[in-house]
Amino acid sequence: MMRPFSADGGGSEQVLGAFTRRATRVLIQVRGCRLGFVIRLFTAVALAVFFAAGAAHPAATQAQNQTPSNPSQPAAAIGAELHQLKLDPDACYRVRDIPLDRPDIRFFFTDGWLIFARPIAGHRIAALYSARETTDDAELLVRPSNRSERASLAQAAGTPNLNEHFRAAVFVFTDGGGEELISAIERSGAKKSEERGLLFVSEAGETVRNLATSLEVRIVNDLLTGAASRGEGLSFAAIAGRTLGNFDVFFDPTTYEQAVVGKVSSSGNSLRFDVWTSFRSRASLRAGTPLPADFSLENYRIEATIQPDLHVNVVTRMTLRAGQRLAGVVGLDISPRMNLTAALVDGQKVEIFRRQSLRESLSGGGINDTFLIGLPTPVEPGGTREIEIRHDGEVIHKAGDGVFFVADRVSWYPSRGFRFSTYDLTFRLPKQSLLAAPGEPLEEKIEGDWRIVHRRCTQPIRMAGFNIGSYDHVTVQRGDYEVEMYANTNAEPFLPARKPAAAAASSAPAGPALGRPAGAGESTAKVSPNPAARMGVVGAEIAEEFEWMASQFGPPPLKRIAVSPIPGFFGQGFPGLIYLSTVSYLEDSARKSLLKSDSVTDAFFTSIMHAHEVAHQWWGNL
Q1: What is the pLDDT of residues 129-141, one digit of tens each?
Q2: What is the C-alpha separation between 574 and 462, in angstroms, rounded?
Q3: CA 272 to chain centroid
Q4: Which of 117, 257, 480, 603 is most buried, most CB within 10 Å of its CB?
């Protein structure tokens, strides 16, 4: 993907690392002055938020009133149990000199209190540390494994190797960390204090529960699949640092960069996760440890209906192939704009577990939701299951004047990472629209009010996108390679209108001059720019680039590219499909007017952008 302008909009860097679930939802939803008020409120309470009990908020009350799930829904049962999570006053210890080590990360509890939550499905998945006396202290050490990540940490936190003392922290474990700590504490001869434990229950019980439920989907997945026994469990800490304020630490063996340190902050009216550093552990680098190959998804068969109001109904079928023994559930990702209505495994309806896991979503970029589907029986390594997911949602937006914007170009169907698969794609859409999609065209026909488009990618690719619009269309052939060019027939509202030449209509630019008032012929009338003015020229240039790159890099997986416009100032290259900024399609006068005659930016849109996106047929998105 390529953008000519910085996407950094600045915004507040206030630390919100220890807020409760209710406040998190409020922060996401509020607008304007209310957002500023909530931020000021939470920065004012800083450390105190870890111990504020308060009245039960609506989300917590709703969770507490949930009826227990039936035994056929084990994920929902654990989720309901998690929403009832309580600190255990019988597991409150006065600790001294207790370490907790993860690769390149060390927590050291010099003095203070540790209290653990009651077990969930037999596991101690949460704990609270608190320093109550002036001599109490705990320390965090983080040593990034490479120079660039040390530089990143130095820029964010003022030090290349993090050494932060803290007085409060909430921990969430699915890797057996709770049992590990209790074992170390009991070996040290630490004393219990039920009285102190009851105090922590009243002060901080809700905060611990809220932070645990912010990782709900991951916790449920790991407990049901036995992730700890395979060394694939998560360690998480929300730290109230003495110097750096509130921030988070993750260690996740299932990701390429296992260690992540950062903070939740606000940007405009929404939340984001600012990564201070993320790196592979030294042990992983030395061992060359590959990512756990739990399963792959193959042979995608997707049937999608795009309704006249742009609502999309989809049935996605795929083959799950196990890389290791699978049992309990498997996790998939999908756009938060997609509703899940049913899941089947080998034709048998199974449980879907999907919850708002705020921290997991934010730390992953906030792009996708992870959901779990049940497995009726275990799958041995190499074994397969046929998966069917039914889903629908609003992933296509109206940009105005009949121009559409596909917002969820990657996550409109369920997936897991970007692993190679074949794709068989069938779309039903209103007959007046055209569809741009990858693959060989097998069929395109009109049935009543519907256009039916069938495409197939027999060579494995990492992802499949689509685009839709009221398009003009040309095909450019260059040797063995083909470029299907699509251009909007209407101009987007943000494009500037232009004054037509004073000459007769014969001097008007080629293509439709849309937007001219009916019957207007005066030279003072303004005409919308022609969004298809350079369609043929750009198509010829892309075909030439495609052929040349194939001669240099070898044959691409797909010999046909569909190129379609996308509103805005960016482009994106998918296998067999390029989203190209509408600016690249404009005639010279309209484009230069829009870009304020900036020659460098003009060259970007006319020459650089489409070459860059063509290169993604070999690099980046495949």
Answers
A1: 999 999 999 999 9
A2: 9
A3: 11
A4: 117
